[in-house]
């Protein structure tokens, strides 16, 4: 027997955790739609629930005439049909008139049954209408809040004993096997968006290394506290008995590794102090053992209580691990921390209880427990990424074609709507492993050393081009420095005007790391650094483990990390003048966006003077693009692309002039501005004739 079933904990998987919202066919035009929600969700029998319709897209919100609601109970019986909702056409905090179309407060009768209810809203502005359905849960008790609702399913109230996974799998037949295939369970997955991955399955558990705690697999369990495997990341493939579902499905539950007095190591650290470290109890196959930590749970709570009160993942459920990734609150990602469970409106308008009150799973939806959401520095992709267009239309700016042109082409929504990150706490920007700092919480509370951290709050992002793919360094690969001598361990792929890339905001995390003379980064045995503060010793231990001999040097490395949480209210969005000086050549550092760095101001001298195609002229940035640019401008040439102007100086022709022209024109040659004018207007790219 692998272990006592009480030691091997698993929660009840929720049958409706993977319930899919129901969407009726919408009849609308001009990208008009609505978002439907219930607050609180789950709603409570005998209590009021606020049913909400939120208009999205190009509605004439000052003239929304009607919002009506139909409601079905858990048995499918229609409780209300086309009942008028209160329509709000004037500001009414905490919602703005541009957000809220209608509300209806409904008190769920005591005689009703629990389960999944269905809500349908129809909104009309007199000319257009839209209809949408969604589902919400009704339960018997609990707070129901988006940040930590613990309302139980009625079916779970019959549980009288908790016997680990067998209790759950008896009803939830496929939940355990589904979970075994997920990256949350395996710490690895398919890598279709990592261009140096070769199609292999990679992740933190397979060739994974990063700029924070480097090689997690050498941490002797210190990096496994958050892992949903109840045995940490063990040497063997997981089984259903290894799934600790309570990590995601009960926010009261807390677990701990079992310390083993016989599994210890005595070291002398950089302060000259001798200290003995104790590690977790291991089973013969290398599994760690975990048990409930009743000391950190409410008094008198039992595992039966925990099993009865499982729930869908809340913000607290996800933040249990993601908020303190990298070793501390707000440390790693920079756009989430512990207080993201109840953020202010300015910190995160989507998750603020005063505004949208969305949970993490509202965007990161799970199908068979596989969850989408990949940034730049993550290797694996197991499900489609959530996008802004999942809720918002392609033209969200209320008939402002200039703003919609930005969103539709080369500017991601996050650029304008996340002006700063680390709004709720300081995030780590760099870590120096050669400057050890003692940290009492490290090593499961035994204390340990970490590299010196530089942290900051309210940080302005950097901006890069991102086409959805990236380079992420994997153990065993050789790596070369960039032009500045920095080793990029995670870098977005993308370039200006390639038709695929968008500008995105990033956090850049810097560190120093060991580079072997072979050109490979050393997977440091990081637990030795934690225990001793001696990074040199940790590197040499890592080399021994990997079979590496020879010398190493310390080099500077960094990682680009996508910033995508922390959307601010739209009133904080930049004005045009925040980015543009209207002269077509806004110098970097004077406005919000570094145009030079992003490649916008790369052009031959004749293009800047306009003499490539005609006589010298001057024009404002806007009028110039209105005339020439093809994307989204009414007067522009339909054949001209950005790269007709935004290109480097050519180095020559692809062949001699007479031969080149003869390919199309039969012995004719051309010269002067009219040559380029005519060819560009016919849609020929520069590379057709020129070498670069």
State the total count of DSSP E strands.
Answer: 24
Give the count of helical stretches.
Answer: 16
User: What gap, in angstroms, lies between the N and C termini?
Assistant: 68 Å
Biggest sheet overview? 7 strands, mixed
Please state the overall shape, judged from the principal axes of the Cα atoms.
flat
Describe the structure.
This protein has 692 residues and is of the alpha+beta class. Among the domains are: 32-145, Immunoglobulin-like; 157-340, no CATH class; 388-417, no CATH class; 602-691, no CATH class. It has 16 helices and 24 strands. The chain has helices at residues 165-169, 175-179, 183-186, 246-249, 303-308, 315-322, 401-408, 413-417, 442-445, 526-532, 535-546, 576-579, 605-608, 621-628, 657-665, 673-681, and strands spanning 32-39, 43-44, 48-57, 66-72, 78-84, 86-87, 100-107, 115-124, 129-139, 255-257, 259-268, 274-280, 290-292, 366-367, 370-371, 427-439, 448-456, 462-466, 470-472, 487-492, 502-516, 552-562, 652-653, 690-691. The strands form 7 sheets. Strands 16, 17, 18, 19, 20, 21 and 22 form a 7-stranded mixed beta sheet that branches. The protein has a 5-stranded mixed beta sheet with strand order 2-9-8-4-5, with no helix packed on it. It has a 4-stranded antiparallel beta sheet with strand order 1-3-7-6, with no helix packed on it. Strand 4 (66-72) and strand 5 (78-84) form a beta hairpin. Helix 10 packs antiparallel against helix 11. The protein is flat. Residues 1-30, 89-98 and 142-152 have low confidence and may be disordered.
């Amino acid at each position: 027997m692998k272990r006592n079933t009480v030691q091997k904990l698993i929660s009840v998987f929720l049958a409706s955790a993977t319930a899919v919202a129901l969407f009726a066919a919408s009849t609308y035009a001009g990208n008009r739609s609505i978002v439907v929600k219930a607050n609180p969700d789950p709603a409570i029998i005998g209590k009021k629930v606020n049913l909400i319709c939120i208009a999205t897209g190009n509605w004439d919100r000052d003239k929304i005439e009607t919002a009506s609601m139909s409601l079905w109970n858990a048995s499918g019986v229609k409780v209300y049909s086309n009942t008028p909702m209160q329509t709000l056409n004037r500001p009414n905090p905490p919602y703005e008139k541009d957000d809220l179309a209608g509300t209806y407060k409904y008190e769920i009768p005591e005689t009703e049954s629990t389960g999944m209810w269905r809500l349908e809203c129809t909104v009309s502005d007199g000319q257009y209408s839209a209809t949408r359905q969604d589902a919400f849960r009704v339960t018997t008790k609990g707070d129901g809040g988006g940040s930590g609702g613990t309302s139980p399913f009625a079916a779970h109230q019959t549980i009288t004993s908790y016997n680990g996974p067998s209790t759950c799998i008896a009803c939830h037949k496929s939940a355990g096997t589904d979970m075994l295939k997920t990256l949350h369970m395996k710490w690895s997955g398919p890598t279709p968006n990592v261009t140096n991955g070769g199609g292999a399955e990679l992740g933190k558990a397979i060739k994974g290394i990063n700029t924070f705690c480097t090689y997690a697999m050498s941490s002797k369990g210190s990096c496994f506290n958050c892992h949903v495997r109840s045995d940490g990341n063990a040497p063997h493939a997981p089984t259903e008995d290894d799934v600790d579902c309570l990590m995601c499905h009960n926010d009261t539950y807390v677990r701990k590794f079992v310390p083993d007095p016989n599994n210890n190591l005595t070291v002398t650290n950089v302060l000259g102090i001798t200290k003995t470290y104790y590690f977790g109890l291991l089973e013969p196959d290398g599994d760690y053992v975990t048990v409930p930590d009743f000391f950190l749970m409410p008094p008198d709570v039992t595992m039966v209580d925990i099993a009865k009160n499982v729930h869908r993942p809340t913000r607290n459920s996800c933040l249990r691990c993601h908020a303190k990734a990298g070793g501390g609150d707000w440390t790693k990602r920079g756009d989430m921390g512990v207080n993201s469970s109840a953020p202010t409106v300015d910190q995160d308008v989507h998750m603020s209880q005063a505004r949208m009150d969305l949970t993490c799973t509202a965007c990161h939806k799970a199908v068979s427990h596989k969850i989408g959401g990949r940034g730049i520095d993550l290797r694996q992709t197991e499900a489609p990424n959530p996008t802004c267009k999942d809720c918002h239309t392609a033209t969200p700016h209320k008939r402002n074609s200039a703003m919609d042109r930005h969103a539709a082409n080369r500017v991601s929504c996050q650029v304008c709507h996340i002006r700063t990150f680390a709004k709720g706490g300081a995030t780590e920007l760099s870590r120096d492993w050669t400057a050890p700092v003692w940290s009492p919480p490290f090593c499961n509370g035994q204390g340990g050393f970490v590299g010196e951290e530089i942290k900051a709050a309210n940080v302005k992002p950097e901006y890069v081009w991102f086409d959805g793919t990236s380079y992420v360094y994997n153990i065993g690969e050789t790596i070369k420095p960039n032009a500045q001598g920095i080793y990029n361990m995670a870098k977005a792929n993308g370039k200006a005007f390639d038709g695929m890339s968008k500008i995105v905001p990033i956090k850049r995390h810097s560190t120093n790391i060991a580079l072997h003379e072979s050109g490979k980064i050393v997977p440091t045995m990081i637990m030795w650094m934690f225990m001793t503060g001696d990074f040199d010793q940790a590197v040499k231990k890592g080399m021994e483990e990997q079979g590496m001999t020879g010398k190493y040097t310390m080099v500077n490395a960094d990682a680009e990390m996508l910033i995508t949480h922390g959307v601010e209210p739209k009133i904080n969005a930049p004005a045009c003048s925040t980015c543009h000086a209207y002269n077509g050549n806004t110098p970097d550092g004077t406005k919000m966006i570094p145009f030079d760095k992003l490649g916008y101001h790369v052009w031959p001298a004749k293009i800047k003077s306009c003499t490539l195609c005609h006589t010298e002229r001057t024009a404002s940035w806007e009028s110039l693009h209105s005339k020439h640019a093809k994307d989204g401008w009414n007067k522009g040439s339909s054949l001209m692309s950005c790269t007709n102007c935004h290109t480097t100086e050519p180095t020559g022709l692809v062949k001699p002039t007479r031969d080149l022209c003869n390919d199309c024109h039969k012995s004719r040659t051309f010269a002067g501005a009219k040559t380029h004018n005519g060819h560009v207007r016919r849609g020929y790219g520069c590379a057709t004739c020129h070498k670069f």
